[in-house]
Design a protein that fits this description.
It contains six helices and no strands. By secondary structure, it is an all-alpha fold. Helix 3 crosses helix 4. The two termini are about 25 Å apart.
């Protein structure tokens, strides 16, 4: 496989993941993703921003989030994000403590 085809396939897979998280699975909260997978939609938006910045494209955290979420983050949060439960917060603390000092991607 040539590099251009690989890049196009990776981009298509990313767009499918983005659609899945932003349209198909709005029921899954970011904290649930963090607890189970160690990353969430905010991580993906940050990775998008960092990739832009690495290529000399100035992009703020807010702009990265808007590019990934398809709307300002505060709008998305108000429409779809619920308050984390005590159990979700406790699970996050456990997961965070288990991963302190481990490299993040």
């Amino acid at each position: 496989m040539d590099d251009q085809t690989r890049i196009e396939l990776e981009a298509a897979a990313f767009r499918r993941l983005q659609k899945h998280l932003m349209q198909d699975r709005l029921d899954v909260q970011n904290i649930d993703m963090m607890n189970l997978a160690g990353f969430c939609r905010n991580c993906l938006s940050r990775w998008y921003q960092e990739a832009a910045n690495e290529r000399g494209i100035e992009m703020s955290k807010g702009e990265g989030r808007e590019a990934f979420y398809g709307m300002p983050y505060e709008t998305w949060k108000a429409k779809y994000q619920t308050e984390a439960t005590a159990d979700q917060k406790a699970a996050f603390e456990v997961a965070f403590q288990e991963n302190v000092g481990k490299p993040t991607n």
